[in-house]
Amino acid sequence: RQLFVGDQVLRVAVETEEQLRLLASLEEDEILQLDFWLHPVSSDLPVDIRVPFASLQTVKVFLESNDIPYTVMIKDVQDLLDEEEAEMEADSVR
Amino acid sequence: ERGSKSFNFAAYHTLETIYQWMDSLVADHPSLVTKLQIGSSYENRPMYVLKFSTGGDNRPAIWIDAGIHAREWVSQATGVWTANKIATDYGRDTSLTSLLNKMDVFLMIVTNPDGYVFTHTSNRMWRKTRSRLPGTTCRGVDPNRNWDAGFGGPGASRNPCSDSYHGPSPHSEVEVDNVVNFVQSHGNFKSFISIHAYSQLLMYPYGYSCNDVPDAPELDSVGRSAVKALSTLFGTSYKVGSICKIIYQASGGSIDWSYNLGIKYSFAFELRDTGRYGFLLPANQIVPTASETWLALKNIMEYVRDHPY
């Protein structure tokens, strides 16, 4: 089974066309294995990205060095998955 | 849990449980609900549609599908709740009863069964189908980029490893092809509604183009009325607009295909949530989500019933 330990979901608040372009370039970088939940298309809309733990540092440094504001929306995807699994097991027992 | 009366709608369920529950729903409402198999998935799982009909021959109909993106679990769960709601409210809710006395409703709860099973067994974040392609180890196609509507255009990836890979050709995915064949052979659908989950939107065509469709003003008005009804329950806020204008340009989507086929009332929902949980919406939010969505769905269906074309 694939684990998502340490994966985070970042919400990026894009402010300029240039930042949009930079984010689009991240999307094309296959090595980072980013999972875009909301794609970079407009400065009016946030961009949500699930970032694998291995790529977190790279992505955060990239955003910070380009003055692109972001917040951590989900701190650890696996924590949520574990909660969900526990809930399903409890349901199953019930 | 497998009987329709003891089923827990406030829980996420496996494909097997959902399919068994569908049988119990049919058994409990034999004069209203039938289960049709419209084909099989890539991994040979049956693809079922629930037909709600009070009789008549090839009546005008409404199509609703859920779960084309596997990881959007509240979509499939809402499909289950909605099927039960339609079956139990018929004969009690005057408006729904009049709708079903005129029209049929077809509801597909798990449009991407292989992907759904994969989210239960291997990768909870899986979105695509599970088809294999020669020349790559990456599997699956985004089934909502695979329809013959601006196929391969902006907002879809040509990279088989991408989560928005459009596939080798339009309708290459058997799951998409099965729905296409069913809808085309029926020939009398008046509305086509696709249920996704994430970020609370109600959208109409187009996604492949940012130009307005000819019916945009009417679709916008229907959509606004629907989300107004939805928000009366918990105050949930939805945005309404064309796919291209309120989310992003995305080619090869199902409702663009249905609209171009002549099904005017084509809509796509993005259900809760705002992002705190992503695709991991807690199970205790299934029923609230489905309940509010029902108000919007009913609003659209009533409009379709009252505006024949």
Description:
The complex is a heterodimer of chains A (94) and B (309). Chain A is α+β, with helices and mostly antiparallel strands. Helices cover 45% and strands 20% of the residues of chain A. In chain A, strands 2-3-1-4 form a 4-stranded antiparallel sheet. In chain A, strand 2 (35-38) and strand 3 form a beta hairpin. The two termini of chain A are 25 Å apart. Chain B has 309 residues and is of the alpha/beta class. In chain B, 37% of the residues lie in helices and 16% in strands. Chain B has 9 helices and 8 strands. Chain B has an 8-stranded mixed sheet with strand order 1-2-4-3-5-8-6-7, with helices on both faces. The radius of gyration of chain B is 18 Å and the shape is globular. The chains are: A alpha+beta (94), B alpha/beta (309).
Summarize the structure.
Chain A has 94 residues and is α+β, with helices and mostly antiparallel strands. Chain A is built from three helices and four strands, in the order E-H-E-E-H-E-H. Chain A starts with 7 loop residues before the first strand and ends with a helix.
Counted by DSSP, the helix tally of chain A is 3
Q: What would you call the quaternary organization?
A: heterodimer
* Amount of helix of chain A: 40-55%
Structural class of chain B: alpha/beta
Which two chains touch over the largest interface?
A-B, 28 and 25 residues
Characterize the biggest β-sheet of chain A. 4 strands, antiparallel
